[in-house]
Amino acid sequence: MTNVGIIGLGRMGMLHLMNNLKIDGVNVVAAADASKKSLNKAKSLGVKTVYTDYHDLINNSSDIDAVVISLPNFMHFESIQLALEAGLNVFAEKPLATSVDECREIVRLVDKSGRKLMVGHAMRFMEVVERMKEQMNRGIIGDVEVATIEEVINGPFSHPRVPAPVADWWFDPKKSGGGALLDIGYHMIDLFRFFSGDAHVMFAHLIHRYNLPIEDGAIVILQSNSSTKGIVNIGWYQQTIFPKYNFRAILHGTAGYLSSDSFVPHNLYVHAVKAGLRNVARRIVGKKIRFLAYTYYYESFYREMVSFVDSVRNDTETAVPAIEGLRTVELIHAAYEKANQKSA
User: Fold this and answer.
1) CA 39/CA 54 separation, integer angstroms
2) 3-class DSSP state for residue 37?
C-alpha cells in the first residue's frame, strides 16, 4: 500500500485527490488546506486526517510515502523543499517554481534527498499526444520542420457550477510568477520540448487584452537543437465550456504532417457516452474501468498520477523529473525577457 498526502485542495488538488482514491493500492491518509469547506469534503471522501496548515501534515508524515502538492505558485518552492527534507516523494503541480534559481535548487534537493519528484506535465499523458509522438518517432512525416501548438481557454476566469472570485495571487506577478504564458503556455512549451527536444526562444510577444498586471495571452517562437521551429499560441481570452477544449498541435514534416484534430474524438459528447458504456461493460466482466475516460482530455491527469505512483513503488525514475520542470521554466523566463526587450 502506498500512503499519500494531498497538500492543497483547490480545483487541481481536489482532482488529484479524486484520482488517487481511484488508484489500486493507494491510501490517501491525510490532506491539508486552509479551507475548512475543502477539508470537510476530503473527510466525506474518506480522508481521516486533515490539517489547515500543510506544515503540520509534513511534520506528521511518518506514515506517508508521498505527497501531492497543488498549492499556489509562490508556495511551491518552500513546500517541495520541506517535503523532500522530510524524506517524502513528491508530485508537484506545474510550474515547478516561479523562478529559475528556485527550480535549480529543487533539482539539487531532489538529487541530495534520493527521493522521487515528478512535475505535473499532464499533457504529455494525453492519448492524442502519445499517438502523435509515436508516429513522429516512426518517421511517418519525415523530419519535423515546424510544430504549431496552441491552447486558448478562459484560464483562472473559468469557474465551477457556482461562480467564485478568482484568488488575488493570480494577478500578483510576484506570487504567480507570470500570467497565461506561465500558466497554459508552460504546457505548450513543454509539449514542444517533448516532441523536439531542448530549445531556445527566438521571439516572444505578450498580449494584454484585459489590461491586467500579467499577460492574458502570448505568442512564442522557438527553435530546437535539431532546428525544428515551434510556434506557441496561448490565451486566457476565450470562454470555453466543458467538454469543448480549444487545443491543437500540428507537426509539419518533410514527408507529411500530423494534426491532433485527426486523433481526438470528433464529437466529445458522443465519446463520453461511448466511454461510459465501455466502462459499464468492463465493470460487468470484472475488468478495471478507465477513470475519467469519458472526458478524453482530463484522463491525462489520472494517467500521470498512476505513472508517479508506479515510480515510487518500483523505485524507478519519474516520467517527468525535476530537470524537465527546470528546462521549461528556463524557456518561459527567456520568453519574458525577449518580450520585455522588444517592448522597451
Assistant:
1) 12
2) helix
- Picking from 127, 92, 45, 130, the residue whose alpha carbon sits closest to that of residue 299 is 127
**Local structure of residue 3 (DSSP, 8 states):** E
Which residues in the chain belong to E strands, given as ranges? Answer: 2-7, 26-32, 49-51, 66-69, 89-93, 117-120, 144-152, 199-207, 217-224, 229-235, 247-253, 256-259
Helix (H) or strand (E) holding 132: helix 127-137
DSSP H/E element including 322: helix 322-343
Model pLDDT for residues 276-318, shown as the tens digit of each residue: 888 788 778 877 778 788 787 889 999 999 999 999 999 999 9
Q: Tell me the domains of the chain and their CATH numbers.
A: 2-123+299-319 (3.40.50.720), 124-265+326-343 (3.30.360.10)
All three cell numbers of 147, joined, read: 510544430
Please report the pLDDT score of residue 294 as a whole number: 76
CB 87 within 8 A of CB 113: yes
Q: In angstroms, rounded to a whole number, what is the distance separating the alpha carbons of residues 146 and 155?
A: 26
For 183-214, letters b (16+ CB in 10 Å) and e give: bbbbbbbbbbbbbbeebebeebebbeeeeeeb
How far, in whole angstroms, is CA 284 from its chain's centroid?
33
Torsion-angle region of residue 286: left (phi > 0), alpha (psi -120 to 50) or beta? left
pLDDT tens, position by position, 28-65: 999 999 999 999 999 999 999 999 999 999 999 999 99
* 3 state DSSP class of 286: coil
Rounded Cα distance between 46 and 26, Å, is: 13
Q: How far apart are CA 323 and CA 33, in angstroms?
A: 28
CA-based R_g, the chain, Å: 20
Amino acid 241: pLDDT? 78
The set of cell numbers assigned to 137 is 518517432
What SS3 state is found at 142? coil
